[in-house]
Amino acid sequence: xTVKPNPDESLDAESSDFVALTAQQAQExxxxxxxxxxxxxxxxxxxxxxxxxxxxGLITGRQVVAISAACGALAVALPAALFARGVxxxxxxxxxxxxxxxxxxxxxxxILVSVGVMFGAYRLVDGLSWPAMLLGLVVTIKVYWFALGYxxxxxxxxxxxxxxxxx
Length: 167
Hints:
This protein is mainly α. The chain is 69% helix and 0% strand. It has seven helices and no strands. The chain has helices at 7-15, 23-32, 38-60, 63-87, 96-124, 130-141, 143-149. The longest helix is centred in the middle third of the chain and has 29 residues, at 96-124.
């Protein structure tokens, strides 16, 4: 006859191995894993969008193409700036529930503003070049991937436990 282990007993055994970090250990982990500022991403989106608009205007020799590419970049960078402002504000830092609510609220605002900028470009820019606007939109969105790939590198952290072993 085999006896199956009680899952509650194994949880109790595992939970007794838990050791809380000291303030110094927590600070070391935070220092070795720098976070990426959303404002850094917004800055580079604006830079890339302006460069793309200028290059597209120079290559084609048509001002409307440059304006269309700038509108595409603006449809990404402006909502990203609003989102960054919203999720780094005081309301979002109040508690976890407020942070989640703030995230979803500002993500919804981001979508609305993106659609609004594209609709505004359609209505206001005479002779809008859709390929240039979509190129500006796509290239500026790709800055998110660039930011993830080139964020500050984390340093390895060695934490000594009470029995002298490290992770």
